[in-house]
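pasting for ref. prot 1 ->
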Amino acid sequence: MAVITKSGMIQNPILKGFNPDPCILRVEDNYYIVVSSFEWLPGLRVYQSRDLAHWVHCTDLLTEQVNLRGNPKNCSIWAPQLSFHDDLFYLVYTDVKSTKRPFKDVHNYMMTAPTIEGPWSEPVYLNSSGFDPSLFHDEDGRKWLLNALWDYRITEGNKSSGIVIQEYDPSLQHLVGKPQKLFDCTWLKKTEAPHIYKQNGYYYLITAEGGTGSGHAVTVARSKELLGTYEVDPQNPMLTSRDQPDLPLQCAGHGSLVQTPGGEWYMAHLCTRPIEGQFAILGRETALQQVYWNEDGWLRLTAGGSTPQLEVPAPLGSIIKVKEEITIFEDIFDGARLKREWNTLRMLAEDSWCSLHERPGFLRIRGGESVQSLFRHHLLAIRQTDKRFRAETALEYAPASYLQMSGLILYLNEDNYLYAYISHEEGQGKVLRMMRCAADEFVLLPEMTPIENDVPVHLAVDVDGTKAQFHYRMSNEKGWRPLQETQNISFLCGGFTGNFVGIAAHDMNQYRESHADFSYFRYEGTE
């Protein structure tokens, strides 16, 4: 949830933690932002607001419609675009199956629904020539699909060679005519994330350029005709943090526009807040900038310049509510369903491995494949949204082998994680220990802590920037004890996602034979 200060300014980022590639849309009095989910499910999280300041997670758009098992890290669901026309929501997105160079196996799809909550139609396949699809509804009723064009023949640098456009026929539910190259890259290169807006007689093409890292930027071009030729903004880039490493918001780019009922314009865009100036552990987040059209018809920040601002004016007439920057999430597993904040990897949470019914009042997680599995990793996690936080859980677990483990985990991807877990060691019995994988280098910490049988174990982790200290206690104890030394977690950054904190169970002896029962999970964060 965003924070509005007493001065009536919206504090960025408006969506903290892993919330990249935002597409913003207004339908009547409701604003929506949909973000990428990559390998995490449910996919394509949607946030809703009435004032651009206070945002709530309202729904997720992809559940059983996708099969992500086996997809490599940083692949799967990319850069969604949400539009609304003739009383119908349109969603286009990319399912990335592989990014192994020089090729990129990407498939673009479309779904529709009468409301944001659905019911959503089955995905319709569109094309595979590139990623970041976007649908433009022209005034004459025709619909056009845009996407970044991937050219494997480019031998040096990025292979995103520009933007391609092709007409979409809704009655036939497929593309018609021939694709046409609409826009080449500027000097920034790596052109992607296209959106077209019609304004004052011009078609405005907004793209992301410069890559999603420190060189990221928003490029704006315009044309009197939809199919071009497009003139680039003479002050390009319109928004960027490049070459200014001291800015609090880095990697600014991947923008989309929305107009308020009062005629004000805003741009939602991607950003990061690197810890210690270099470690984007929280991942790529979503920020909001107020913009306007200048006398020459170009898009500009109302703050001036081209750098992202930490504070932007709230829309005129907004009701200002001051909120403290404290994030609390707690699940005591006493309901019929998991809370919607939870996420899983490449597969949905199903009763077969993640049950609230087998033992009422507990979440039972049956052991899945290894912590590095791309198929059946039985992990339940939430986004890290704060630079400082504490997470706690308690579990009952009776492992019979070192191949069985369950506990509390900090997880970026299968190559980067820190896991405090209960297991069984020959000659020692039930033990508590830790493993770490950083940049695909696995380390099993040698220290083992014997723990009692048949006693619930409480685990906690305190994170402060790049430091993480795990703790433990038995349920019959009051005080917490440190588990191992403080760990440096600066490696939990990079790629396209952000760090998650969660609970998991693994059984590499006999799949789903063992299980752990969790009685609660709590996350409390402060900036």
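and prot 2 ->
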Amino acid sequence: MGLGRAYSVALVGLNGYIVEVEADIGQTLPAFVILGLPDASLNEAKERIRSAAQNSGIPLSRRKITANLIPASLPKRGSGFDLAITMSVLRAANDIKSTERTVFISELGLDGRLRPVRGILPAVMAAVQAGYPDIVVAQANAAEAGLVPGARVRGYRTLARLAFDYGADPQELALDFEPEDEEPCDPEDAARPVPDMSDVSGQGDARRALEVAAAGAHHLLLTGPPGAGKTMLAERLPGLLPDLGDTEAMEVTAIHSLCSLPSASVQLVRRPPFENPHHSATSAAIIGGGSGLPRPGAASRAHRGVLFLDEAPEYERRVLDALRQPLESGELVIHRSAGTAAYPARFQLVLASNPCPCGKASGKGLDCTCTPMMRRRYVARMSGPLLDRVDIQLEVERVSLAEFGQSGGEEDTRTIAARVEAARNRQSERLLPFGMETNSQVPGRVLRGILRLPAPTTRILDHSLERGVLTARGYDRVLRLAWTLADLGERGSPDSNDIGQALALRQAATSAAA
């Protein structure tokens, strides 16, 4: 009897930490103790491990077993430590060969089969970065783990087969047990019809605003009566965005791996995600949180994609205001008593709102039954600091009969997406020395420094700032919009016309609401 050792990974948010699992078999009465801040699901591993080992033909020692998870100060949760604890105990009993420098991540079933777990992709990424490229996972997680460059992944279906490969006595092992293949869930990126812009009748201004938002990764507010096409437009924004690069795809896939069901088949996500939570969603559902260590919400699942909040004034105000942090920093840091988790959240926010509670205050508003106070209270549910961070604020008018009757005359998504991609390429080339990719990321010091425009060009913008129509943040956001308009127009820098259009895009809904 000696000391056994194996390795696993503990996830705190998307950050993974190598956990050294030590096992010692004592000379006292039978017991099984797990040390190192385990949660309830990890404490239950003792019964799962005993049954799995017994049914695999390698029963655990009848003496006292102590498993220690190092570092002891790091909270550990979930069933993914089952396999690492089992292998360390078997090594301590000299039932298998050395497990040094190998990371084991899997849940165990009572029959000895290896079960998939959530968060395999970020866990394997953390292990490889820490210098542990040899990974053992459940067969159902092997394809996902194999997405990580540099990882040497082996997938197993049963504990008996794994123990055999590590030198266990084959005469005792239940090697004849072969579980049925689990049917993988369809991946989220499975082929599904992409909504096309050609389905949108009329709405020339809104279509242009959507193209500008896609080209510069700008946030967007659409205000208009019910049935004007706000939701229809928002659902078509992801189709205008370019495919994700390798680094971005790994970031998005890691988040989806952490959020998906353990049995789900996770593939590398190449298309920008689209999240559309209901207005009754809680703060934890949208921002992230929950009991124990915080989990990602819709804002993080929309990373590198679109977060669409339909009927935005119906959301709780504190939920909307909580989005102000990621809109500025592109990251959500969630603090709980059990720990702090940081999740990436660089998304495009699209808000849709009616002009008033009854929705009939657009245009002349003759059919509106709302009082002026009701309208002001309704719009005020979206706070000024939040709206100040939204670059494009557009009023969407009702579609006329003439526009509604047209068919086949509008540009499709592929045509607009080609212009968007060309504009993005111009941005990335210009912003490469600053380490940025899109105009929405350019800070004010760069806009008013190296990329400063001539005074005659920004005269109308300076005048708006002087009169208090714009805040300093709004001034910078109009400049970013102007640069995007210039990129779409294949111009080297914005002119006064671009400044005027950008100012109109930002103030259209605001002036209409006023």
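The chain has a mean pLDDT of 89.
The chain has 22 helices and 18 strands.
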